[in-house]
Amino acid sequence: MNTSIYKLLSQSLGFTEKQIEKTIELLDSGATIPFISRYRKEATGSLDEVQIGNIKEAYDKLCETEKRKKFIISTIEEQGKLSEELKQRIDSCWDITELEDIYLPYKPRRRTRAEIAREHGLEPLAKIIMAQKSEKIKTSAARFVTPEIPDEQTAVEGACDIIAEWVSENERARNTIRRCFEHSAVVHAKVIKGKEIEGDKYRDYFEWSEPLRRCASHKILAVRRGENEGILRVSITPDDDTAIERLQQIFI
């Protein structure tokens, strides 16, 4: 077992590395949580069932993360894009959200509008626009007009599709928008047309919105149930103006 996992668990759960190691050894040997808490106190430092359960849950998550890291490294390596710096960054990352952000630019993707624009040779134009050093964008775009790209406006629109993907895959941008969700997101629920009678028990949420930060957990659970039962249409959105302003601070 990777000893760094013991250290991570020790730091996050507040137990000693020895307690973590012995507990995981017992779990891996097939011992149950009740057995360990009752009969292996000398090995675990008298951890109770809840504490051992917390160790197991955190340990299982880290093991899944480790498997994911190996898959990501293998996938990027097959593309010939795995630098030593990138490999070290993936190896040292244990946050699954951050890990997926790192992987996103290398993730095999379906044929998006941005991918079609690249196939039409518009990535150089996207770089010109993104550099923000020219005010004559349509003049630059004229060089990219082809039978597939009939005019300058179409070329610019294709380049913007590529830029949109760059912004979407940018780690700093993604974290910025996550913070917008945390601070200003609003939950919206609306009844699906024709479901009013069937979903009468969700009547309070037929036309409802509330800031996410102030929304009680029982309300979130209710609208999620209504969504799962096909009664409500639910969305969570940040303040658009705030989100755009923060993205502009990064890219403009």
Describe the structure concisely:
By secondary structure, the protein is mainly α. The protein has helices at 3-13, 17-28, 33-39, 41-44, 49-78, 84-91, 96-103, 113-119, 123-131, 137-141, 152-169, 171-184, 217-228, 240-251, and strands at residues 186-191, 207-211, 232-237.
Structure, explained:
By secondary structure, the protein is mostly helical. It folds into three domains: 3-106, Orthogonal Bundle (Arc Repressor Mutant, subunit A), CATH 1.10.10; 113-169; 185-238, no CATH class. Helices cover 62% and strands 7% of the residues. A three-stranded antiparallel beta sheet has the order 2-1-3, with helices on one face. Helix 2 packs across helix 5 (49-78), helix 8 (113-119) crosses helix 11 and helix 9 (123-131) packs across helix 11 (152-169). The mean pLDDT is 94.
Features:
single chain; Arc Repressor Mutant, subunit A; 3 strands
What percent of the residues sit in helical stretches (DSSP H or I)?
Answer: 55-70%
Look at the helices and sheets and give the structural class. Answer: mainly alpha
Whole-number radius of gyration?
25 Å
The fold-level CATH name of the largest domain is: Arc Repressor Mutant, subunit A
Characterize the biggest β-sheet.
Answer: 3 strands, antiparallel
Total beta strands: 3
Query: Please, what is the oligomeric state?
Result: single chain
Under the CATH scheme, which class of the largest domain?
Answer: Mainly Alpha
Instruction: List SSEs in N-to-C order.
Output: HHHHHHHHHHHHEEHEH
